[in-house]
Amino acid sequence: PQLKAPMVDVYELTNLLRQLNFKVVSLLDLTESEMRNAVDEFLLLLHKGVYGLLYYAGHGYENYGNSFMVPVDAPNPYHSANCLCVQSVLKLMQEKETGLNVFLLDMCRKRNFHDDSTPNIVLRVTANIVFGYATCQDAEAFELSSTSFINGVFVKFLKKRLLDDEKITVVLDRVAEDMGQFDATKGKQALEIRSSLSERRALTDPVVSGDGHDLAHVHSRQWAKAHELPESMSLSFDCGVQIKLGFAAEFSNVLVIYTHIVKKPADMTFCQAHDLDVDPKEMNRETPEETGIYLLSSSLPQHCLYTRLSSLQKLREELVFTVCLQGTFESMGEEPPIHWTKSVNIRKPLIARLDLHRPVRRNSCLQTCLMPHSPCHSPGPEHHAHLYHQAPDYSRLLSQPHFLDVAELPLGAVGGCGMPFGDGTSPCGLSSSPGRFSIPIEASDDINEVQTVFINSLQLQPQ
């Protein structure tokens, strides 16, 4: 719960990939079944020649050369049957005849001694695969924890290079060199690149229309289906007050609602509107930051009440909430405020339209994990969602000087189709309160300044 980087990393990589014309799906806090369904939806966006990119930040491990992403509901200790195998996802992407497959894995690669299975995933020789591991084999990945807005170590340097018009392996080589000069993690974390890329492929390559133009159009519509925001609306009350509701997307499964009074009678001395059906301690705050909206705060209109709804993938019915208006008039004296209410239905916003909460539907992702000698088996009954990963015992690390307060990094992802998975720490349906998830707005781009700050007071947090 105390970790901050994954949500920030996913948000910033999402914006960078969009600048490169990627269709990005960015998701936080997914259970196993939600992750499998999200992968299936991601695969629907792929076809011949498409560049597919998946970024993941969070709990993970590596056994026998296979990497495993850990969902938020994985038991402790977890096994491969509770996780998603990255190589299994790659095999499914290969079946789509993608032009480039890029995996950026921002997670630890330590062995999981609770998992003794030996995967046997046979991949095709496609000469278009690039892996960028945030750390070396059998090592940990870190985020730098401080009082300021912060990235994980990998993304801190990746975001400065991602838009470079260079072959993707050249970009990652330069990121590795930058990370190697960062004193805070030197000797503890080093980027590892694995590639079978035989052509010059860059994330900046222009999008071209080929034989699959019609198919690409269909896939773009499929992506748009899960990223349409509710239209802003005006609510008029009998007392003469008019309220405007606006909506913004922080991630594919996080919605921001802002409420603003645009008109009221001249003799109304007090007027306030807020959303019911949500926890008032978490919602209807007067600044975005109070409600946990740190990343969008600068682009939202001012002088509103703000509400943040996360984990939209769990929404089973249409989203209906009540707007309550309170007001007093000059003629009322000391009488209590009058209340008016209106019900609002915004159907299923953003990723909620895809019903990722259902049991695994298309068996593509699951079947790949069920190959002979595969580490996975049928997941059985769906686990109840836990809000946070359970951290293992880190007592063995606490003896390291200057690197205390060690905790695991939560799950995050971006993906061109680009897909970021993110394991932030906000609970289902409600935003985190400022005390539990405090992320400032701006990030420093000055590496030297960051080094000085972190060398003086550094907390390394492995994933």
From TrEMBL:
Which SUPFAM superfamilies does its entry note?
Answer: Caspase-like
Task: Please give the Gene Ontology molecular function terms for this protein.
Answer: cysteine-type endopeptidase activity
One GO biological process this protein is involved in is: proteolysis
InterPro entries given for it? Answer: Caspase-like_dom_sf, Caspase-related_regulators, MALT1_Ig, MALT1_IG-like_dom_sf, Pept_C14_caspase, Pept_C14_p20
Spell out the PROSITE patterns in the cross-references: CASPASE_P20
One Pfam family this sequence matches: Peptidase_C14
**What is the name attached to this protein's record?**
MALT paracaspase 1
Q: Where is the Caspase family p20 domain?
A: 1-63
